[in-house]
Amino acid sequence: MAKRDYYEVLGVGKTATLDEIKKAYRKLAIANHPDRNPGDKAAEDRFKEATEAYDVLGDEKKRKMYDQYGFAGVDGANGGGHDYSNVYRDFSDIFGGGFGGGGFEDIFSSFFGGGGGRAQGRSGQRGPEAGSSLRYDVDVDFKDAVFGTKIEVAYSHQVACDVCHGSGSEGGSGTKVCPTCNGSGQVRRNSGFFAIASTCPTCGGSGHVIENPCSSCHGTGLKRKQQKVKVAIPAGVDTGSRVVLRGMGDAGPNGGPSGDLYVYITVKPHKYFVRQDYDLFCQIPISITQASLGGEIKVPTIDGNSIKVNIPSGIQSGKMLRVKGRGVTKLNTNDRGDMYIKLQVQIPKRLGMKAKKLMQELSAALGEDESPNPVPFEA
């Protein structure tokens, strides 16, 4: 089921103040809290939905991203999830003693993994995480975009450390319980009636620290590597097209899957041809006699050869001729668009005596008036 707009969830307008947002969330959270609605799955879902909405709208930066990009702006920023840090931070301010004497973690942990960071469960164990995807921009020649090509790109990305094989520990020494949080992954402090939990700053919430960090990767389990890779550019790509290389991005921490490499394409302009979708356009000059008498002319194509094109007699400057199947290859097919030739009749700037006399004779033969009346038009 599609998500509801966060403002709609809390029942506030898009210009609502932070205080109005807090009041709206408090009302919904108290009304739908599972302790007050035992066994009511719908109330539980409404409680979670309201908490997620407040986590975004109650934070200035998250709210700005949501207003600008919608769910993509906040889901992407949080790796596809919510850390509910805003709810944990403002809990006492919002609820006071509204839920009685129950501990902070008793209210939220069963739903959101309590701890002020991304939900990890009470074990505090951090599992594999997906690596980051990368972007690489490349310029492609016009003709290569029409017919496709292969290119080589060189880029830098994170890979598993070749010394510790991604474990982060020296010689397979493994991990030990974090001395700061004693393995819980959280540190707690009391604030009035509530115990406020936050992610352990020493272990980052995993509950364990590496006993002897790898000297090569300094305990991260990852190293940066320069790599070259062949990329097949399909025929028909245009500026803004992208090619995705799965698993060629950064390696994931703790053995997680690697991200992807996105190769974004910019097509270089051509000296003679202009592209519109899968069609090509070019301009070809012809003489007055060619335009008047007609005949065949040779026209270059993007394929690298020339073709003969018939010009009908009396053709006017600016007329377009169409040649089928001489355009751009259509993506994922063997079909091609068309080529359009715009004819430009060239007027000679200088005439010799003989040519001038012939032109005068032609004008007389055509019955042209040397001083014709202007063409009437309406103002």
Q: Top keywords for this entry?
A:
379 residues; alpha+beta; Helix Hairpins; HSP40/DNAj peptide-binding domain; Chaperone, DNAj Protein, Chain A; four-stranded mixed β-sheet; three-stranded mixed β-sheet; 10 helices; zinc-finger; HSP_DnaJ_Cys-rich_dom_sf
Task: Describe what you observe in this structure.
- The protein starts with 5 loop residues before the first helix and ends in a 14-residue tail after the last helix.
- The radius of gyration is 35 Å and the shape is elongated.
- It folds into four domains: 6-119, Orthogonal Bundle (Helix Hairpins); 134-173 and 214-267, Urease metallochaperone UreE, N-terminal domain (HSP40/DNAj peptide-binding domain, Sandwich), CATH 2.60.260.20; 175-210, Chaperone, DNAj Protein, Chain A, CATH 2.10.230.10; 274-360, HSP40/DNAj peptide-binding domain, CATH 2.60.260.
- Helix 2 packs antiparallel against helix 3 (41-57).
- The chain is built from ten helices and 15 strands.
- The protein has helices spanning 6-10, 18-32, 41-57, 60-69, 71-75, 85-95, 104-112, 142-147, 288-293, 353-365, and strands at 134-140, 149-160, 175-177, 186-191, 194-199, 208-210, 222-233, 242-245, 261-267, 274-276, 279-287, 295-300, 306-311, 320-323, 339-346.
- The chain has 379 residues and is of the alpha+beta class.
- Mean pLDDT is 82; it is low at 97-107 and 109-125.
- It has a four-stranded mixed beta sheet. It has a three-stranded mixed beta sheet with strand order 1-9-8. A two-stranded antiparallel ribbon has the order 2-7.
- Its main location: cytoplasm.
- One of its GO terms (molecular function) is unfolded protein binding.
- Pfam families: DnaJ (PF00226), DnaJ_C (PF01556), DnaJ_CXXCXGXG (PF00684).
- It is found in: Cytoplasm.
- Homodimer.
